[in-house]
Amino acid sequence: xxxxxxxxxxxxxxxxxxxxxxxxxxVLMIMLMITTTxxxxxxxxxxxxxxxxxxxxxxxxxxxxxxxPAIILVFIAMPSLRLLYLMDEVHNPSLTLKAVGxxxxxxxxxxxxxxxxxxxxxxxxxxxxxxxxxxxxxxxxIVLPMNSPIRMIVTAxxxxxxxxxxxxxxxxxxxxxxxNQTSFSISRPGILYGQCSEICGANHSFMPITxxxxxxxxxxxxxxxxxx
Length: 228
Fold this sequence. Notes:
32% of the residues lie in helices and 25% in strands. α1 (15-47) runs antiparallel to α2. It has helices spanning 15-47, 59-88, 216-226; strands at residues 95-102, 105-110, 117-120, 142-145, 150-156, 161-165, 170-174, 180-184, 190-196, 208-214. 17% of the residues are buried. By secondary structure, the protein is α+β, with helices and mostly antiparallel strands. The longest helix is centred in the first third of the chain and has 33 residues, at 15-47.
């Protein structure tokens, strides 16, 4: 999760998020190079007092500043398109989880198991403990196995919502009457936090998402306990 005065992205908890962080740093380096070059040229032009009455055209420099931006765009577009295809690809999922957005809570259904569904509400401030986070912890956490491809199906029962986990690089709109699909794989154990990222009414700020990533053995035990 993010921390106080954190100026960078959250630590990636999935391979896709790690690739997104690398792409972010890659584009920032290109932007730094462009900013430095343009600033140097502008300062040089402002401070330069020399003139030439014989310079009427500059075909070489015009060719250069036409081709150079195109090459830079290729260096940005290629990894961007690769990431888009990776994020859209749904590999053979070992688990399917359906999230339904309501005003103002989430409902979850484990489609691969019978009678495994629950509602997830934010823990009220007066019921919180020292180990819980304000506005982020829920009474029923999503439990998912790590290192397993997971298919996520998102929809809504009333208005627009958005199911978002920043550390997984996942943000999927929940639209009434429509099923949106995404996939991810959690690469480490732990607790991951997210929130609804679509303004959905008065209590939009109070419908968090909490995922508990556990090894497969503990997940099977949890499923057996919940199915009793």
